[in-house]
Amino acid sequence: MRAIATVCLSGDLHSKLEAIARAGFDGVEIFENDLLSFDGSPADVRELCVRLGLEIVAFQPFRDFEAMPEPQRGRNFERARRKFALMRELGTDFMLICSNVSPQCIDDLDQAAADLRELAEIAAEQGLRIGFEALAWGRYISDYRDAWEVVKRADHPALGVVLDSFHILSLNLELETMAAIPADKIAFVQIADAPLMDMDVLQWSRHFRCFPGQGRLPLDTFMQSLARTGYAGPLSLEIFSDVFRAAPADANAKDGLRSLIWLEQLVEDAPWSRPVPPQTTYDGVHFIEFTLDEESAAPLGELLSSLGFRHIGRHRSKNVELWRQGDIHLVLNFETDSFAHTFRLLHGTSVCAVGFRVDDLEAATTRASAYRAPRFQGPVGDGEMEIPALRGIEGSLIYLVDETQARVQQWTTDFVLFDDDEKPEAGLVNVDHLSYVLPPTQLLGWQLFYRTVLGFTAGSENEIADPRGMVISQTMTSPEGSIRIPLNASRAHETMSGRFLSEHQGGVQQIAFATPDIFTTLETMQARGLPMLKIPANYYEDLASRYDLDESLLEAMRERNVLYDRNEDGEFFHAYTRTFMGRFFFEVVERRNGYSQFGAANAGIRLAAQAGQKP
96: which strand partners? Predict the structure, then answer.
């Protein structure tokens, strides 16, 4: 069963439950604070969940119970009896008990076991169950092994241990003991991921948890150990996050379900495993589609021509142009009754869609459906190819194109092609990477989308210094490395990313093209009048002091405004155009000897130069 705690989402209880149901979860944990603030009875919540098709799998948390002195002990039992009555009205048979954090708690495992056994007996008389969980910051019980020891000593069929991945993995506890726990003594399993952080575990837990696949905890080893127990009960998400509290509940709930589907794939043949097609192999970016109007057509056409692109075709039934250079195809869409036009109304002249070549189209689309990726279906004219599309960042589209059809068939089917040999190409060969700007609250969600739906892997997160604030960048890369997608977000509204988000609603801001010879390519482009971003002379003085570069190479870089980076893998040369209409810009890159990064060390220089760029 796939379940989620209501604490994971923003909003009131009613809206949370509706979002959980729409996402496709089977069950829900009712967090006590959500119930306390609900304008209705527990019976109303039960009826709502029945109507939505949700099973209430747990009521939680019940705090500071075990090993308390009198009179607190007696009060705790009375409090528990009241919660049991509430549970019956709510329609759930299970309550989660957290280990005690009270300073009045007694350091006595036998007393804790006796208290829990007595409470389990009271619960069993009413057909209820309880589970005991070790909080990582519990006063005397912070280790799941101690919680399991208490449950063993209590020895009651209505009592089991609760295993929470965050509380266990955040303390780096061994998992062999967990793997040996009998399945019938595991009452419940909660799952959370998190970034690796050196901080107090309580603050880490309360503010920085995330869905599986969004963090860095070793969930694969946790799930392998859990599978060895034979546990077949619910897997439930419990996430405390400042980002999630600010994010829309519907999008967050869909991310949550997607993360559980991904989690289920970590261990083959586990009781909870449900087969999902393996990730496809990609063969690069097939095309980039721009939406634009007649006003921006001429200046963009001039810019593309100076980059070495040639206008080689026109769509058979639509006001759409095809431009090409090397293995790069650019689609310019001028349609006024189309998805592209709707996207243009929100974003202006922009990239509205990209196409990825895949080796197994059926497997790719089946995998996307399994991970609940939203599909898009636009009008298709007579004789035109139907290409499946997924909804991407900020409403843009990701087309999945069969690589055997992509090279020739798509263009000859949908376009009237013609030769334009007025100017030779400039040496660009393929799309190196595409950088998106998105709201900070969506960064984790889209990282998860690329990881699960498309099978991409996440690189390390980088902080980039803009003159007006910090930008976070996270790169997603296809398995074979042919597609690279940096995702950028900034909480500072005046950074370049922040302004692009507020003025143009985000999307693709940077398009990088690869060349095997950047100096010849740039010389050709500059001869055609390409407006390059000017890099300060001080940059090259510093470069000369840091690297043993030939003076003639440095001079060639100065003349062409080329930036440079080097690591143990190889060298990276890159240069930027000026920003087009204050919206997006192009980058020309040359990678040497296997360099796989993006020149992050130069990002601050580029951003400062762009900040000083005059319109």
Answer: 131
551 Cα distance to chain centroid = 44
Rounded distance between C-alpha atoms, residue 81 and residue 58, angstroms: 16
pLDDT of residue 178: 97
The runs of H, that is alpha helices, within 230-277 are 242-246, 249-264
Q: Which residues fall within 8 angstroms of residue 286, CB to CB, at 6 or more apart? A: 329, 355, 356, 357, 399, 401, 406, 410
Q: How far apart are CA 244 and CA 192, in angstroms?
A: 13
The full set of domains in the chain, from first to last, is 2-264 (3.20.20.150), 282-417 (3.10.180.10), 430-611 (3.10.180.10)
Sheet containing 320-325: give its strands across: 375-376, 389-391, 397-402, 350-358, 282-291, 328-333, 320-325, 310-315, 415-417
Helix count and strand count (H, E) for the chain = 23, 25
CA 370 from chain centre, in angstroms, equals 17
Q: Report d(CA 527, CA 363) in Å as an integer.
A: 46
**Residues 92/59, Cβ–Cβ less than 8 Å:** yes
Residue given tokens 């000369």 in the structure block = 544
Tokens found for residue 573 = 């040369």
Q: How many CB atoms lie within 10 A of CB 336?
A: 9
Residue 337: predicted pLDDT: 86
Tokens representing 321?
A: 């142009």
CA–CA dist 402, 388 (Å, integer): 10
Alpha helices in 307-408 (DSSP H): 339-347, 361-370, 403-406
Tokens of 310: 């040639």
pLDDT of residue 449: 96
Q: What is the largest CA-CA distance in the chain?
A: 93
Low-confidence ranges of the chain (pLDDT < 50): none
Distance CA 520, CA 573 (A): 12
pTM above 0.70, yes or no: yes
Question: What's residue 526's pLDDT?
Answer: 94
Start-end of H helices in 416-550:
443-452, 496-504, 518-527, 537-546
Please report the pLDDT score of residue 353 as a whole number: 97
Give the Cα separation of 322 and 383 in Å (integer). Answer: 18
Nearest residue to 352 (alpha-carbon basis) of 362, 360, 341: 341
What pLDDT is stored for residue 385 in this prediction?
A: 81
Q: The tokens 């206008």 sit on which residue?
A: 311
H or E segment at 28? strand 27-31
The pLDDT score that the predictor gives to residue 44 is 97
Query: What are the C-alpha distances in Å from 509 to residues 346, 499, 612?
Result: 15, 11, 18
Burial 123-151 (b: 16+ CB within 10 A, else e): beeeebbbbbbbbbbbbbbbbbbbbbbbb
Q: Which of 261, 275, 263 is nearest to 215 (CA)?
A: 263
Query: Tokens at residue 288, please?
Result: 């980039």
